[in-house]
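Thread: quick sanity check before group meeting

JM: Hey all, I'm pulling together slides for Thursday and realized we never actually wrote out the predicted structure for the chain we discussed last week. Dropping the sequence here so it's in one place. If anyone has concerns about the input, flag it before I start.
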Amino acid sequence: MNLGVATSGEIELFDHFSGASEPAWLVTQDTSSAGTPTLAPASVVGGAFELAHDSQDEAQNITLYGGDVLALGGASEPVFEARVKIQAGGGALTSAETLVVGLASARNATLDNIVTHFWFKMTGANNNILYEYDDGTTDSDDNDTGVDYVSDVYAVLRIDASDLSRVTFAIDGVEVADVDVSETITDANLLQPFIEFQKTSGGTDNGVLVDYLYLRSQVIR
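JM (edit): ok, ran it. Output follows.
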């Protein structure tokens, strides 16, 4: 993990998950009752963090996030980036699975009930990468970026909220959407890094590898 305060007044957090556990600024949670999904650093070259369901037929919501420590407000101009790879045995997630990657307020098992969020979403038996945002006033769901993920291939997902009049979503360095939340997002809309992989039921054991997670924000004094 690298953590530093730059002379420009920025804080940068970065982790390549090459240690034995997640970094101190991230925690995990697991709602499974009978199964044992995977939430741990993976043994791969360079390091990665794995979130994978197991074959137990039950709801399993597994999360790598800030533990509901919400420290990112509008004035902090957050930028989030993660390099992720979906590992799906059938080439795509099933209709029972949903992955979201981005920024969110306090966690809720019903993703749409999370009050404020900016994230990428992969769900259902297709390979669409969607984007969603909720600024507390406008809840915009299931917007297709026009880009599909490929199983077992990494994609870099970036959300740049350094300008609230033009929050951008980019995939592999190419901007796919922008939204204006300058009239509704304030420092009362606090956020955290958020990656959650949900399964409502079924015996699928698909997974996600997070190669790295990067977060940048302004120091507010």
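AS: nice. Confidence is low (pLDDT under 50) at residues 1-7. The radius of gyration is 16 Å.
JM: adding both to the slides.
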